[in-house]
Design goal:
The chain is built from eight helices and eleven strands. It folds into two domains: 124 residues, Response regulator (Rossmann fold), CATH 3.40.50.2300; 100 residues, Winged helix-like DNA-binding domain superfamily/Winged helix DNA-binding domain (Arc Repressor Mutant, subunit A, Orthogonal Bundle). The chain starts with 7 loop residues before the first strand and ends with a strand. By secondary structure, the chain is of the alpha/beta class. Helix 3 runs parallel beside helix 4, helix 4 packs parallel to helix 8 and helix 7 packs across helix 8. 39% of the residues lie in helices and 20% in strands.
Length: 242
C-alpha cells in the first residue's frame, strides 16, 4: 500500500510523549499520520488537509476535545472521531457521544486496541455493498423502513426520499443492531456487545441511551413520543419497522 492509499489520521493530544508515540505506532501499522498539539493546531491542519479519522484527546489546554468535536459536527464535518478519555471520566464519554463522536477509548490503553478501534470505525464508515445475485434479490433484506425513512443495510445509509441523513459510525452500528432485532426488546448491555463495545462497561447503559436519543432525533416525528424506536421500561429498547 502506498502512502496515498493509506488512511490519513490526525492525532490531537497536548501530551508530547503520547502524541509522538501514537504517531509513530500508527505509522508503523499502515496509517498516514499527522499530529496536532491542541484544537487550534488541529483546526489549521483540517483547513488544509483531508483526513479519514481524528484521534482526539478530551482534555487539552484551551478548547477541549469535546468542544472541538461538537464544533466540527455543527459545521457539517463528517470525518469520524475517536475520543481519548480518562478511565474514570464517564461524563466525558457521554458528552463526546452527545457531541457526535464515533467511539471512545479510555486511557491508559494498549496501542494495538487503538488500531483495532480505528480499523473498525473506518470499516463501518467505508463499507460498500457486496454484489448480490439477481436470483437472490427477492429474498435478501436490503433495507427497512420507518415511516418516510429507509435504512440501507448494506451501505449503512439512512434516507428520507432523496435526502441523505448523516449518521456517525456509532449510530450506524447501533441502528443496524436494532434492525437485526426489530420487533424484539434488546437490553442496553446486549446492544453494547452487538456494536463491538464492552457489555460490562459501567458507562455502557448511558452510552446507549445517548445514541438512542440521537437516532430518535433523526427519524422520529416527535422524539419525546417515539413511534418506531421505543423504550421498554426496565428491559431496553425495541425498533418497530414498516
Amino acid at each position: 500500500m502506498t502512502a496515498a492509499d493509506q488512511p490519513h489520521v490526525l492525532v490531537v493530544d497536548d501530551d508530547d510523549r503520547l502524541r509522538d508515540l501514537l504517531t509513530r505506532y500508527l505509522g508503523e501499522n499502515g496509517f498516514n499520520v499527522s499530529s496536532a498539539r491542541d484544537a487550534a493546531d488541529a483546526r489549521a491542519s483540517l483547513a488544509g488537509l483531508q483526513f479519514d479519522l481524528i484521534v482526539l484527546d478530551v482534555l487539552m489546554p484551551g478548547e477541549k476535545g469535546v468542544d472541538l468535536a461538537r464544533s466540527l459536527r455543527q459545521s457539517g464535518s463528517k470525518v469520524p472521531i475517536l475520543l481519548l478519555t480518562a478511565l474514570s471520566e464517564t461524563e466525558d464519554r457521554i458528552a463526546g457521544l452527545e457531541a457526535g463522536v464515533d467511539d471512545y477509548l479510555a486511557k491508559p490503553f494498549e496501542p494495538r486496541e487503538l488500531v483495532l478501534r480505528i480499523e473498525a470505525i473506518l470499516r463501518r464508515y467505508g463499507e460498500q455493498p457486496e454484489p448480490v445475485e439477481a436470483s437472490s434479490l427477492e429474498d435478501a433484506v436490503r433495507s427497512v423502513s420507518f415511516g418516510a425513512f429507509q435504512f440501507d443495510l448494506t451501505r449503512m445509509i439512512l434516507q428520507r426520499g432523496d435526502e441523505h441523513i448523516y449518521l456517525t459510525t456509532a449510530e450506524q452500528a447501533l441502528l443496524l443492531a436494532l434492525v437485526q432485532r426489530r420487533g424484539k426488546t434488546t437490553s442496553r448491555e446486549k446492544l453494547q456487545g452487538m456494536i463491538g463495545g464492552n457489555a460490562n462497561d459501567a458507562a455502557a447503559s448511558r452510552s446507549i441511551d445517548v445514541q438512542v436519543t440521537r437516532l430518535r432525533r433523526k427519524f422520529e416525528e416527535d422524539p419525546k413520543q417515539p413511534r418506531y424506536l421505543q423504550t421498554v421500561r426496565g428491559q431496553g429498547y425495541v425498533l418497530y419497522t414498516d
